[in-house]
Write a sequence for this structure.
């Protein structure tokens, strides 16, 4: 069995270090917050203007003036701050955010990512994704290894319009954990129930195996 | 100095066909809902609207879209509005997508008298096509222009008759930068207070940016994605 969504999130949470400021995208990335241990001091940045995002509110705490970038109602943690959109992206573009985790439709071996548009079909816009991949110190992509039709998403070259060039550092999928170096994809960890060969077969681009290759532990 | 007007109808006087209008708000949070509702009744059209999002079907800028009043949108994310997607795919609406940070900075620059700026965001993507690319210290940056509007509409929590504004929580979002970038900026607030009641240290938007201010009655503050945790 490949990893489930929560296991992907749990694995990514292992990459979060104490003291980090982290921006989490919509979908699987949002789940990462559930698995950051309380022993680590981490501030979550929400690009609509909040540093120090807390859990979802109770019915009594619900406040329409307090939402995250996914437009969900949320709360703040002690030490939180509010700011305007220009300041928010100064933080992001200026390299002050340690880590961003976001979803993708395609990633290629050069570290290019496509996650905002399917020409003629889907027009939602890039939101803050282009700024995040351009500015965050570290970019991790959380996604399924294959699309709904079984198509490969880790490619030699992205086919869809790009969100950013040469910006992805790591990819965590239901099949395994990959890094990208100047020579392309490196498989660091594979899902416990899948062999490295099965992971490589589900990847269009060549994959090298890390000398420390091991099963994902979550 | 008294910038207080009676209501949204009076505040929107002078808005005409073909103008560029700027709107604060993120999703439905902190949008100038009374001004938008007043604009939807004005019968003006061919508008270029600049807003991070495009409202939802039936609320916020979705009202102006449904009336066919908008010719072009400049936005970063419109995934919440089905009508928008349909109008765009049917080529009945022009759309210019800007990365969210680029949109915020274009407004900030426009309001601050900066004609253009270089940003790393969007280099090598569709966003940078046809624009000047320049390399600084080994990294490529794309030239983006500042953005101004004929009218700008913002929503704040409290304001005074000088136009000083304080926003509340994440309802601040784009409002302060939008406020700086309008030739005429209109603020709608939940409460109008006497000058001096806002602590000068806590004012988010100094009154110089605001030309008209009014108190909105009964803000709906619709929640887009109500998410609750069990107590």
């Amino acid at each position: 069995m490949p990893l489930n969504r929560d296991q992907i999130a749990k694995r990514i949470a292992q990459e979060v270090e104490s003291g980090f400021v982290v921006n989490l995208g919509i979908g699987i990335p949002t789940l990462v917050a559930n698995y950051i241990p309380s022993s680590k001091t981490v501030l979550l940045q929400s690009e609509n203007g909040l540093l120090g995002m807390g859990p979802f509110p109770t019915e009594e705490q619900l406040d329409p003036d307090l939402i995250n970038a996914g437009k969900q109602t949320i709360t703040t943690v002690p030490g939180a701050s509010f700011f305007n959109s220009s300041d928010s992206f100064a933080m992001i573009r200026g390299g002050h955010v340690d880590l961003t985790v976001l979803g993708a439709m395609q990633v290629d071996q050069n570290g290019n990512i496509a996650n905002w548009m399917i020409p003629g079909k889907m027009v939602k816009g890039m939101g803050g994704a282009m700024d995040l991949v351009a500015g965050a110190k570290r970019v991790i992509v959380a996604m399924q290894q294959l699309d709904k039709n079984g198509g490969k998403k880790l490619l030699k070259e992205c086919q869809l319009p790009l969100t950013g060039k040469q910006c992805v550092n790591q990819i965590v999928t239901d099949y395994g954990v990959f890094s990208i170096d100047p020579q392309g994809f490196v498989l660091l960890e594979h899902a416990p129930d899948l062999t490295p060969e099965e992971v490589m077969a589900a990847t269009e681009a060549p994959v090298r195996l890390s000398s420390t290759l091991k099963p994902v532990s979550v | 100095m008294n910038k207080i007007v009676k209501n949204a109808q009076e505040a929107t006087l002078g808005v005409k066909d073909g103008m560029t209008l700027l709107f604060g708000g993120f999703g439905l949070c902190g949008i100038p809902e009374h001004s938008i509702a007043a604009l939807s009744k004005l019968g003006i059209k061919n508008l270029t609207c600049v807003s991070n999002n495009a409202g939802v079907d039936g609320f916020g800028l979705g009202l102006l879209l449904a009336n066919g009043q908008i010719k072009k949108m400049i936005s970063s994310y419109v995934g919440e509005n089905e009508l928008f997607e349909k109008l765009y795919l049917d080529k009945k609406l022009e759309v210019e997508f800007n990365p969210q940070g680029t949109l915020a900075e274009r407004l900030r620059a426009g309001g601050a008298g900066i004609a253009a700026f270089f940003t790393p965001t969007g280099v090598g993507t569709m966003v940078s096509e046809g624009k000047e690319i320049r390399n600084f210290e080994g990294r490529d940056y794309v030239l983006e222009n500042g953005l101004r509007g004929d009218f700008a509409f913002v929503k704040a929590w409290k304001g005074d008759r000088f136009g000083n504004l304080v926003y509340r929580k994440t309802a601040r979002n784009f409002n302060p930068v939008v406020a700086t970038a309008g030739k005429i900026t209109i603020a709608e607030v939940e409460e109008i207070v006497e000058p001096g009641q806002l602590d000068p240290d806590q004012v988010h938007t100094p009154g110089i940016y605001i030309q008209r201010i009014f108190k909105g009655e009964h803000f709906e503050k619709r929640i887009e994605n109500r998410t609750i945790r069990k107590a």
Summary: The two ends of chain B are 49 Å apart (CA to CA). Residues 40 and 185 of chain B are 18 Å apart (CA to CA). Chain B touches chain A through 59 residues (CB under 8 Å). Chain B has a mean pLDDT of 96.
